[in-house]
Design a protein that fits this description.
The chain is about 40% helix and about 15% strand. With about 400 residues, the chain is of the alpha/beta class.
């Protein structure tokens, strides 16, 4: 991996000044091009086994300011591209995510676009954010900004967030879009402590080796850990998280000789849960660890923008109102509505409506077919195959 060649000095720059030949253009110096960030990131990636001091990196890349290098390193650490050590000096080591990024800037926080003039025009949506599976996440309003950028800001301030809402509203998608260095534990009633800390795995030729779990990896690499469906996990298992989230930032791994793991800068925990799922238990111990509790619902305007017919959206809105009132046990969310669009594009509108009714739980299917029939003016039954 090679460091990019610095741009040539501008006309009039002193040719005998070493710093001048290594100084980016005015545009780069303003931060827009990420010139210094790339040099810092590539230098760390070229030395993956070393933990480097800020001054060492500054001298190696010929940067004029160690302060600017330190800011770039902190940005890398916040994105999970580097691990920040304090012992007591500030030292940094590239992570695998940083190596994979190959010196590119981490995803920028979505920026709003003003469609008005200086009089304070209505702001439009920021650009969609790619998820690891290649699909796009469309940011939504949260507080004074957008959900993705606000989650990133909360991470830098170490303010943990608990997301809750029905399945399919976009909780996991939002977290994946916000944090490209994400690790996930999918909670169930069978989740055990080893799923967080790690366990011994057999190796070829005989014997076993201890493989650290996602909690340990996230702590040591300064990454984000999503605990999905957290309220399905037995409370005694979830207790393994609590020392990592409080002021100690240290956990013990009993299965590996009481080895300890220390959280470094960038480490952050987000949890999500579905209150209506059978067996979900939100304990006070879990709830109190999260400063922000964010209710995530379906964005109906976004559903319309993504091609869901108005009548189907209106039926879904009615069903969700009935769900809130306890009149039904299920209602389609954004995930099901986007699935409706896919089925419609392949099999046609009639089949898509029948499929939306068919994916509803049996004890809610009559409610769903009635709402869809009422809003579309079409009798609907669940999708099925009959005679030839």
């Amino acid at each position: 991996m090679t460091t990019p060649t610095p741009p040539a000095p501008q006309a009039g720059a002193p040719q005998n000044n070493p710093a001048a030949t290594d100084t980016p253009t005015a545009e780069a110096a303003s931060g827009r091009s990420g010139y210094l960030y790339r040099k810092v990131a590539l230098h760390l990636a070229d030395h993956p086994d070393q933990i480097l001091k800020v001054g060492e990196i500054t001298r190696a890349i010929g940067a004029p300011s160690s302060g600017a290098v330190f800011e770039a390193l902190k940005k890398m650490a916040a994105a999970g591209h580097a691990t920040h050590h304090r012992d007591p000096h500030h030292r940094f080591q590239v992570t695998q995510a940083g190596i994979d990024a190959a010196g590119t800037l981490p995803p920028a926080a979505p920026r709003t676009r003003s469609s008005g003039s200086s009089g304070g025009g209505r702001q439009g949506r920021p650009a969609p954010v790619p998820r690891p599976n290649g699909t796009l996440y469309h940011p939504r309003r949260l507080g004074k900004g957008w959900d993705v950028e606000e989650l990133r800001r909360l991470r830098t301030q170490q303010v943990p967030v608990l997301l809750y809402g029905p399945p399919g509203t976009g909780k996991t998608a939002m977290v994946e879009a916000a944090f490209p260095d994400l690790l996930t534990v999918a909670g169930t009633g069978d989740t055990v402590v080893d799923d967080f800390l790690g366990s011994y795995n057999p190796i070829p030729g005989g014997g076993y080796e201890f493989v650290h779990g996602p909690l340990v990896t996230a702590m040591r690499q300064g990454r984000v850990l999503l605990v999905d469906d957290a309220t399905l996990i037995p409370p005694r298992v979830l207790a393994v998280l609590y020392p990592a989230m409080d002021g100690r930032g240290v956990i013990t791994i009993p299965a590996n000789g009481n080895e300890t793991a220390q959280a470094v800068d960038g480490f952050y925990i987000v949890a999500g849960h579905n209150p209506g799922v059978h067996g979900a238990v939100l304990t006070e111990a879990l709830a109190s660890r999260f400063t922000v509790h964010l209710h995530v619902t379906t964005d109906w305007d976004l559903a319309r923008q993504l091609g869901v017919p108005k009548q189907v959206v209106n039926a879904a809105i009615d069903l969700n109102a009935d769900l809130t009132a306890g009149k039904t046990v299920w209602a389609p969310q954004l995930r099901e509505l986007l699935g409706f669009v896919t089925v419609r594009d392949h099999l046609g509108m009639t089949a898509a409506l029948a499929n939306l009714a068919g994916i509803a739980p049996a004890d809610a299917r009559d409610d769903v077919t009635a709402a869809l029939s009422r809003h579309t003016g079409t009798p609907i039954t669940a999708l099925a195959l009959g005679k030839r």
